[in-house]
Amino acid sequence: MVDFAHRMMVSKVIVHTSVSTQPVPDWTFRVGDFFCDKNIPITRQRIFEDMKILYPELKVPPTSYKLSLWTDNTAGIATFTHEGDRGVDRAFPMSIEWLEICFHDDTNPQCPLGKGSGITEHVKVGCAIIPNLEFDPDANGYMPIDTTYGIPTAHLSRPTTPTNHQRSFNTSSPDSWSSPPQPAEVDPYTRAFVESLEQDTRSFERGVKSLHTHCLITQTNSRFANLDCGPGYTATHIVPQQLWFSYPDRLDQRIHDYPINVVPSSDSCDESTLRSRMAKTWRLANGILLRADIHEIFNQRLLAIHPVTDEMRIFAPMDVVAGYHGKKVIWEARPDRTAIAYHYQQCVLENVGAMFTPYTEIAVTRKWREKVNAVARTVPEVIETIDHCQDGIMDKDDARSLTKQQEIEGWLQKFNAE
């Protein structure tokens, strides 16, 4: 597992909100870390987009202001690059660079731009506003992949291993790391409810390997004889199966208005919605075919596909995938674009900003668990089944069969009524 400590060690472009002229501002002002090198360049335009994913309040600047990145030279003179300016798509040099973010109004008649002034003069006359940014995992929909949700998944869930517990979160500085808490006990009602959502997981793998003939990233395959897909290639979930309950609903906004938050709120949970999300997680539209090593990199959120441009993006210096950065994928069958946006957003949140929040402040996991538990308790047949099991009337296998039988009978009644 590649934890936040390893990811931050390769940061080359650091965004902060300090107005200090020190070459390395105080750690507490860092709001974004970006990796880049000669094979994996990053542009200011991409930084603008990522910062709006991390901090939604940056999407709507104050009237007449523009989102801007500014730097100062050795003489302390501030220069600004506004979002949308020409040249923002140029890649950064390979040396470490510190960038400050602000809102700037270059139409303000008192703006001292071009007069050799530093940032403090711009702030003083009111043409520059330094935002107070704080990474809020609940507001921007960050969904860590760990074992703290306490919500069961379908059969083929990845088993819990010691490596699942290695992800670390920053508490106050790069030298201070804390480990995630151990997984919570699963509510018995929730376990029964999720089991009633049981999916045919084998059909997902067969379907993906039949629909796709090549690895989406490498365009290679292992077909031979009459095998459509040989060994070494994996049917991959875009939205992870362990996060099925947060599968994005149909968006009211167009995906081309990206960046938008594609993760639904934990408040939008009811039985019908949860059943729909579980089903979507195992549909072919949530699947792509990847070579086994690429599958692992994708699942560790170190590789993503931009939901609008279809460009591949690499978040760490790995030779095995560096050559694909910036190239467009070739779709054999286009999957659910909101699922692609979900994965891309989570990659940005995890690699660029999540390390700035102590793990104890990431309450998203607890909120989702509470919501799913609450829905599970309202499902009558599940409660009845649990009560029977607890009273010793039937064993667990019989209880599962009864729950499934009741579900099938319910569907038949609806079908016959129509």
UniProtKB/TrEMBL annotation:
Residues 215-306 form the HNH nuclease domain. InterPro entries: HNH_nuc (IPR003615). It comes from the Eukaryota. Residues 153-185 are annotated as: Disordered. Residues 158-171 have a biased composition (Polar residues). This is HNH nuclease domain-containing protein. It comes from Orbilia brochopaga. The lineage of its organism: Eukaryota, Fungi, Dikarya, Ascomycota, Pezizomycotina.
